[in-house]
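Proteins fold reproducibly. Next comes an illustrative record:
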Amino acid sequence: MSSGSFPRPNLRTLLLLFTLLASLATLLNDLYVTYRVQREILVHNVLEANRAYAAKVALSIGQSLGADLDRLNYSAKVLGQDFPSQQRRNDEVRRLVEQDQSFNTVVIADAQGEVLASYPPVLGLKGQTLRSKEPLKRRQGMISPAFSSLAGNLIVFVSQPIWNSQGEYLGLVGGTIYLRDANALNEVVSKHFQKDSDVYLVDGQRHLLFHPDPDRVGQVVGANAAVDAVLGAESGALQVVDEGTQMLAGFAAVAHSGWGVISQQPMSIPASALRELMTRVVLGIIPMSLLGIVLIWWAASRISRPLSRLADLAERMENIQGIRAVHAWYFEAWRIRRAMLMGALLTQERIGTLNHQALSDPLTGLANRRALDDCLRDWQLLGKPFAVISMDLDHFKQVNDNFGHDAGDKVLTAFARLLRQNCRDRDIACRVGGEEFILLLPLTSLADATDVAQRIRRSMAALDVPPVGCTTLSLGVVCWSPEDDIEATFKEADACLYRAKQAGRNKVVAAVHEHL
C-alpha cells in the first residue's frame, strides 16, 4: 500500500511564505497609495503655487497698465486745454517718456491719425499716420494687441482720447511699449521669481508679449488649454501640454488689457521630487522590513514547533510521554496532541490485545496467524515499515519420527523461549505452522534484521534439547515499506528461506534490496 509522495514544504515554510507574501502585498499597496497621494499633493501644490504666482504677476501688470492709462488720461486732459500748441505737445510727450520709463515712445496724433508730436524725436514719426485706426475709432482708453510699429518694432500701444472743453474729439495721446526692449512692463514681469517655473504673457490675439526665451516674444501660441482659459478672463490652474511637454500651469487674467499671465512648471520636476521622496520612503522601510521578517520567522517557528514535534512523534505513536511533553500552547495544537494521545493509547490497547491473542498458541505461547494478520493490518494502515524474518526448523519431521511428538514439542517450546529472548518488546514473534515461525521487527533495517537472524540461528544451533540434542534453523530476511505489497514481501521471505535450505540449511538468506 503506497502512502503517496511526501510534500516538500513544511508548516513553518508555508507560514513564513504566506506571511511574507501578505506583508509584501500590503507593503506594495501602501507604497502605491503613498505614491498616488503624494503625487496628487505635489501636483496640487505646484498648480496652486503657479496659480497664486500668476495672479500676483497679473495684479502687478494690471496695476502698472492702470497707472499708465491714468498718466495718459491726465496728459490728454492737459492737451485738450491747449491742443494747437506744438510746444505743449512736445513738452508732454517728453515728460511721459522720461517720467518713469513706462513707455519707450510717446506720440500725439490728431483725429485723422496723423502724428503731431513724438518722443524721442530721432524716430522721425512726426507727420506719419498711425498704422492702427482702432484707437481712433473707439475713442476711449485702450491697450492694443501686439503689432509692428512704423519703425518696425514689436510694440503694444496704450492710448487715451483727447477732448476739448466743448467735448470735441481732437485725437489721442499714446505710449508704446517695446516688447523686446527694457521698459517698466518687462521689469514688472521679470522681477518676480518662482522657483522652477516659467512665466509668460499673452495678449488677446495669442501673441507672446513676454517669455523667458526672448526669441519667442511675438510668436503666436498654439493650442493650449491654459491660454484658452485665461483669454476667456478666467483664473485657475490646469495640467496642459506645451510643445509636447506635460506642464502644470497656473493662469490669471490681467485687468484693463484682455491679456493673460501663465506660470508653468514641467511635470518632470515634481515627478523627480516624488521619485526622490519614494526612494527615501523605501530606504526608511527596509530596516523595519528586515526586522519584520525576523519577527515573522520567529513567530512561524514558534507556531509550527508544536505541530512539527507532534508530526515527528506521530511516526512513533507508542511514545506517549514524548507526546505529553509537547508544549501545545494554542488551541489547534492542543486538540491534535489530545487526539494523538487518544490514538496512542488505543494503539497500545490494541497491541495489548494482540499480545493477549498471541498467547492463544497453546504450545509455544507465541502469536498465532490471526494475531499476525491483525498486526500487519495495523502497521500497514499506519504506514509503519518493518522487517520480516521467516524461519523453519531443519529436518523437524525426523525429530518427530525418531524421538516422538513429545520430544518435538519440547524442541518447539525451547525455540519459542529462545526467540523471545532475542526479541525486543515491540517485536512480534509468531508461530504460523508446525515448525514454521515468523518474526516481525518494526522500524528495522535489512542489515539489522539480518544480524538478529544470525544471532537466532547461532543460538538455536548451540541449544541442546534432550533427548533430541541440537537442532538447526534456516531463515529468510526481507524488509517491507509502505510502497511495497505485503503479500509479495512474505512470498519473497519464503523464497529467501527456500534458498537457505537449498544452500544446505542452517543458513540466513536476506533479500538483495530494502526500501527503508
